[in-house]
């Protein structure tokens, strides 16, 4: 400060001469608040009060920049610094001094900044694609002037990257300066670092595809934190969550401290958007990171194994039981605020069970069922809790081939359905659950009554779903199977006609060209048409079969790319 405002120098010198401990804070026992008051605030205020308005003081308010305040290990000192700062400005509201702080707004900081004198802003909210484009333009112009390979290429081919590639890069980057910098460094890596793509021009298409072009970047970045406690749990959880959770939510779910999550993530900001506060969701800079983490051949030690779905599922159940024990009326009182993790548990825990279905040990199903029963005992009339228990019992019955367990699941599904009368928004979900369980029981005991009821339930579920809704696809798929089985049992043509119509709907409205399930469904339609031809002898079915099979064969044929 003395260098910028020379008039403050005698006041700073006087303060140090009066108290030498100001220069040895670790030994003198002088608080940070006192040091700031004696060495910064008081000298600045003295100059202002003396009205020695030299040239330095005529340029408007002065600005002190504190960068990375959250990186200070001593949280007590950070709070002390902020408290002293706020006290000074409260006592001197007109002083021409401002403080600009860049930091994650962690709880120990946020608790001190929630006052009118402080303006909080999230820089992510102010980042635009135009800013990213300008940033990349400057980086590439500088690189072109320094890199002989790029300069030689530009002399022959003119602009590099071209406008189209720049636009694609901006779209891929998604508003993150850190990610933009990381992508640029990947493109401009040295020949030795570039691997099989020896020049920046070769690496640009890989960066545009993002998969697997940035695997090296992902591996290198993740390695920075892999030695830290809870790294694997945190990264696998972020990769497998169906909806992003905030830092506080991830910590709450995993049963660890918020700072432990932050400790892992701060090194990964090139590939993960780490929010400025603990209550904003943690997101990936690009979806290709999730693809990387969930593909073992690419991610290796960083692989988010499907068994982690089981862990997330059980953690959700444990958390739900904990909050219900603390407040048994939590889900009943609609006015009560539900935490992000509790909300996530209610919406997505069953999905984690389904995704981890092949990884469950029998004891894990037992633990899940025990937790579900305890939750349901606290709130016995909540259809969400009934359904969660029903699905757990159903999946264990599938694993153990227990008819008794399946019958309990059917009974529970019926209970949940009764609590969701029409027009309940989740009635179709309960209809599909019960229909699927009845279909499973039919496969074991071959009860026609189960098959008939399953068809009736799935038909009702289909009627409840709008034609454009994704859940309609699920309802159509669920109905196709029992219709085909019923035709096989009864040879009643109406069941086959209905199955064909629904299969055609799937192809027309849900499995468009390019969808990974289109070929499979085309072959299913061909089989159904063949059954109808066998039953009716309609010649037009033969031409339809030929067209459908031709498309299926064309779409499933391997593509052969020319060798350069």
Features of this protein?
27 helices, two-stranded antiparallel ribbon, two-stranded parallel ribbon, Arc Repressor Mutant, subunit A
- Share of residues in strands: under 5%
- Alpha-beta classification: mainly alpha
Q: Provide a count of the helices.
A: 27
Gyration radius over CA: 32 Å
Form type:
globular
- Unreliable stretches covering 5 or more consecutive residues: 560-564
Strand order of the largest sheet: 1-2
Give your account of this protein's structure.
Strand 1 (62-67), helix 4 (75-91) and strand 2 form a beta-alpha-beta unit. Among the domains are: 6-120, no CATH class; 126-209, no CATH class; 221-302, Arc Repressor Mutant, subunit A, CATH 1.10.10. The chain is mainly α and 564 residues long. The chain is 63% helix and 3% strand.
Record the SSE blueprint:
Elements: H1 9-18, H2 25-28, H3 32-49, E1 62-67, H4 75-91, E2 97-102, H5 107-113, H6 129-146, H7 148-157, H8 163-173, H9 177-187, H10 200-209, H11 215-222, H12 231-240, H13 247-254, H14 258-265, E3 272-273, E4 283-284, H15 288-293, H16 296-299, H17 307-326, H18 340-355, H19 362-378, H20 383-400, H21 403-418, H22 427-445, H23 448-464, H24 470-490, H25 493-509, H26 518-536, H27 539-556
Parallel strand pairs: 1-2
Antiparallel strand pairs: 3-4
Helix pairs in contact: 1-3, 3-4, 4-5, 6-7, 6-8, 6-9, 8-10, 13-14, 17-18, 17-19, 18-20, 19-20, 20-21, 21-22, 22-23, 23-24, 24-25, 25-26, 26-27
């Amino acid at each position: 400060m003395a260098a910028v405002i020379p008039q403050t120098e005698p006041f700073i010198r006087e303060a140090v001469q009066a108290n030498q401990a100001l220069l040895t804070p670790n030994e003198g026992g002088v608080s940070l608040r006192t040091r700031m008051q004696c060495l910064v605030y008081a000298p600045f205020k003295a100059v202002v009060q003396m009205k020695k308005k030299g040239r330095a003081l005529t340029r408007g308010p002065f600005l002190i920049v504190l960068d990375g305040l959250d990186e200070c290990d001593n949280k007590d000192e950070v709070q002390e610094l902020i408290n002293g700062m706020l006290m000074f400005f409260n006592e001197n509201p007109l002083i021409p001094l401002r403080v600009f702080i860049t930091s994650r707004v962690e709880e120990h900081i946020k608790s001190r900044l929630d006052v009118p004198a402080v303006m909080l802003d999230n820089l992510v909210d102010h980042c635009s694609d135009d800013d990213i484009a300008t940033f990349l333009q400057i980086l590439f112009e500088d690189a072109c002037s320094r890199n002989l390979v790029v300069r030689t290429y530009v002399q022959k081919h003119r602009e590099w990257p071209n406008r189209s590639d720049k636009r694609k890069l901006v779209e891929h980057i998604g508003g993150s300066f850190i990610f933009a910098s990381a992508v640029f460094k990947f493109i401009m890596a040295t020949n030795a670092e570039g691997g099989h793509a020896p020049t920046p021009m070769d690496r640009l298409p890989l960066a545009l595809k993002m998969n697997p072009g940035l695997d090296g970047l992902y591996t290198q970045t993740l390695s920075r934190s892999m030695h830290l406690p809870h790294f694997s749990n945190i990264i696998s959880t972020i990769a497998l969550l169906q909806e992003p959770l905030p830092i506080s939510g991830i910590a709450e779910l995993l049963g660890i401290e918020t700072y432990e999550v932050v400790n892992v993530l701060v090194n990964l900001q090139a590939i993960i958007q780490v929010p400025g506060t603990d209550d904003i969701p943690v997101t990936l800079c690009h979806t290709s990171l999730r693809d990387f983490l969930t593909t073992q051949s690419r991610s290796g030690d960083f692989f988010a194994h499907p068994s982690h779905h089981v862990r997330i599922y059980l953690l959700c159940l444990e958390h739900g039981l904990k909050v219900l024990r603390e407040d048994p009326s939590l889900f009943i009182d609609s006015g009560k605020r539900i935490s992000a993790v509790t909300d996530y548990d209610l919406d997505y825990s069953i999905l984690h069970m389904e995704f981890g279905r092949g990884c469950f040990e029998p004891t894990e199903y037992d633990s899940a069922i025990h937790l579900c029963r305890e939750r349901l005992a606290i709130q016995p009339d909540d259809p969400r809790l009934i359904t969660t228990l029903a699905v757990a019992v159903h999946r264990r019955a599938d694993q153990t081939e227990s008819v008794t367990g399946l019958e309990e699941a059917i009974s529970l599904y019926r209970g949940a359905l009764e609590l969701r009368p029409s027009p309940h928004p989740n009635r179709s979900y309960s209809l599909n659950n019960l229909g699927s369980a009845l279909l499973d029981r039919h496969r074991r005991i071959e009860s026609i009554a189960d098959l008939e009821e399953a068809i009736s339930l799935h038909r009702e579920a289909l009627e409840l779903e709008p034609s454009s809704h994704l859940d309609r696809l699920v309802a159509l798929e669920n109905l196709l199977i029992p219709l085909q089985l019923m035709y096989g049992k009864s040879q009643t043509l109406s069941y086959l006609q209905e199955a064909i119509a629904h299969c055609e709907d799937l192809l027309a409205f849900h499995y468009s060209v390019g969808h990974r399930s289109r070929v499979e469904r085309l072959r299913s339609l061909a089989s159904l048409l063949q059954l109808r031809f066998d039953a009716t002898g309609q010649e037009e079915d033969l031409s339809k079969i030929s067209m459908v099979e031709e498309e299926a064969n064309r779409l499933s044929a391997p593509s052969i790319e020319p060798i350069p």
